[in-house]
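Researcher: Please generate the 3D structure of the following complex. Treat every line as part of one assembly.
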Amino acid sequence: MSQQQQSEEDFPRMRREKEKVHEKEENGEGIGWGGQSLREQFEELERKTEESGHYAGIDELELKNEEPIEYEQMFSQLRGDLVTARETSKEVAATPIVEQEGELCYGLFTPEGDSIAVSTGIIVHIHTMSEAIKYMINHDYEESPGIEPGDVFVNNDVDVGDVHACDIMTLIPIFHDGELVAWAGGVNHVIDTGAIGPGSMNVSQSSRFGDGAYYTARKIGEDLELYNSWKNDYPDKTRTPDFLKLDERTRMTGCLMIRDAVNEMIDEYGVDKFKQLSREAVEDGRRGFRNRIEKTMLPGTYRGASFVDALYEGQDNLTRSYANENHLMHAPSELHVREDGSFQVSFEGANKWGWHPYNCTPAAIQGGIWVMLTQTVIPNANVNDGAYYSCDFHLPEGSWANTQNTETAHAYAWHFLVSAWAPLWQHLSRGYYARGFWEEINAGNANTSNWLQGGGIDQFDKLHAVNSFESACEGVGARYVEDGEPHAAAIWNPEGDMGDAEVWEMTEPLPFLGRAVKPNTGGAGRRAGGAGFESMRTVKDVSRWLLYEMGNGYMTSDGGLFGGYPAASGYILNAQDTDLKERFENQEDYPQHDLDPESGDFESKIDGEITRRPEGISTPKQFDDYDMYLNYLRGGSGLGDPLERDPEDVLSDIHDGYVLPRHARDAYAVVVEKVNEEAKHNSAVQGEWEVDEEATQQLRAERREERAEKAQPVTEWLEEERDRIIEEEDLIDDVKKTYASSMRMSKQFAEFYHEFWDLPEGFEFDLSEKAEKSLENRFKTGFKRKWKNPTKGHETWWGVGRDDEPAVPYTWNSDRSIKDLSSPDASFGEPTSGKAMDDD
Amino acid sequence: MPESYPREHIEDLVDDNLEWNQLHDMMSDFKDADRFQKVRDVLQERVDWDDPIIIPYADHLYVVAKSDDKWIIKCDCGHEFCEHDENWKADALINVRDTEEEYLDIYPENMHPHPDYMELREFFCPGCKTLLEVTNVMPGYPLIHEFEPDIETFYNEWIDEPIPTPEQTA
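Model: Done. Output below.
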């Protein structure tokens, strides 16, 4: 039986739909509703939405109001079908990334690409898939390559709609009576993208060309059969073809389940009711978001700033000599809650993108913020693109947050993204505090690292890559009413956990030597940030194997709230050329942990070349059997004055392994005495302590007095600090370069900075020649845009807000404009000297 | 879900006396409509001064009415900072943690920011010396003014109530 015959028998409904579409084509009709082309339908939707202020011009939720039970039944059924699709198809996948961590999600979208309902999972992609669909519409895919029943599309292009290349999405159109009625989409995080280094999020490339294979909204099959050209293409663009093949079957399984569910719903309720539901659900989501904000927040302006480091100076294996520099991300974050409950989020003042893989596209930023909002503002099933229609995002073009340049690298956009939204948690928490909803307050989250990645020839003598998702388990920021959850989940996957060590060992030649809670990773506070954890791994049965680290190091990106301290930052610990094998054979002690980096315990139990340094990122380096690697997963930030923490809670922290005993005194002013050397409360903590209540009371009183003696009035400090800035004392080149970059990007930030410090006219930081050249190089690169036909929603990137208010109302009160961006056809200057490899 | 929690329940929330299962229920339920007023009233009872609370501003801090048109930020210890739309931090005490030695009080070696790249600014109330906020920023960063509430819109349009004044309280 031929493939075509098989398809005809297996998918009769699809074949009938295809014939109807062809009939319409012959009559000059498009696949949109009422014979419109899809592009016409989309433009009409944008026009109606803009004119009415309601999604698709829907003033009244007729279905919801007149048949509320049926409306809820239909919506719940769709939501249930999406969750079922995820739970079922997850079992098709072979990677622990999907099977263990659930790095998978599905969405049902309107023909125009607005999400109606989503599954659980990595719902960052509520909006990334939406952008990919809109891209296809706005770039006339209906004409070429055509959008027909049974077609299959794939996308992982960040500039189209994705966070990073390793999130591959499958999209299939759903037709009824010759009309496109919806799209089903699924996305999962794959294990290797064929980047310049092994793993899904390589860190050594300087541009997009090292990120791995990008598939730009590509049609890869029809009649639900994948083209041979696709089947013979992508497996050779990854080090893990078998995993990717199963990932694709996973996504196809889920999408087909969703398609069947939609067909059944249409058969049961009729297509008109389904269309009505899809429109009303988005409008309902839009209204629900605003209602929730008006009920739980305060109108006004909320501000913060976050930073994270990406240090590349002196790293090995960089693909371009001009990438050999340190980068600091600067994210000024401003949330304006308008009087109608809508949000305006601005990153005005963000610095320039860099030759590193942490740049972001608007889809990444918007998707990332959804993940946060769905865990706070809309913690229910009614999550869809309605919320998108209640938010404007001002993402300065040319900044790391919106590069608009198809040369930039994005493999681990999350490094900047997670760090940049840290203040947004706090904006919401300040609003919740003022309204009395204290149970919702959260100090922030963890920098979701370390990322253990690498690859080479594995224990089965096969080319392989690894991407440990132990990082789906991090400490969570402190709540107002409780401590943060220790080793709980990562913000980008609310359902994640650390995974079973045994399962990781099946796919990674990196046996576990130990796994334990890591002390002092959560920020100190009246409520402590949730602790992170650590795994000590070794390497076994490999050849030409590479490993690398990825996370924050010189900066902590997650600030505390209301007097709580930020979460700890990361560091790197490896041991190579070790005597671990001999220790195993001789049954001697070996390191299982690095609970206290100052203790010398690790170094006392292993001989070899030990690397211990306070940075968080390393480029791929060779590891051999019996080498060692610490995988340290971060903690969350703290809340409230640590002197207000109950001393008995500090005692529990010691016994649970969350706090090292010496920090009870230093950070919390709690006096503890060791009363038993042998007791074990936690497998990694030896000993038992007791609180000396009287001494604690006295120490806390003294500590307050010390504060009064040591601290100075802010007015005095401001004077000293101003002198320090003018004299440029102690300010290192990396810091000054970051300020200079933000000032060149934003006239408003430059004015704000100068006015705040009352700097002399014409003041500029004195930069090194290398820093000047670095800025010059990137600013001259200009724009290389992907979208020839942007959507209305993209206008907020350009700083166009509502007609009756400035785009960024309070802080940046002059007309916003990018001060200094050159034309797209400019190119960067002469490269700095040094070794460069030509493969990126 | 109650449309409104009993006052005792909100007192327990404010006084940190709720069990985890009660808090979890509050998180999962629909939000009660009069939470703001109840929390504000409980807090008003808890403080030792009479200025009417307009909003709880941050842990320990309130926006209070001194007159019909003068609203200030005030600590629960009684220290008065500044006008409600100014940055209270400018009137606070500050300690900047920007050396390795100072970082090691709070964090183990290698697990704290590099002092050249990031400093911790600790802001204390000049009255009670409570640590009110810690910000982690690059050296040389301006003070961040975290929250400018739009009190008029909130009272007039969102909850439709008069803004508290000293006369009302008296």
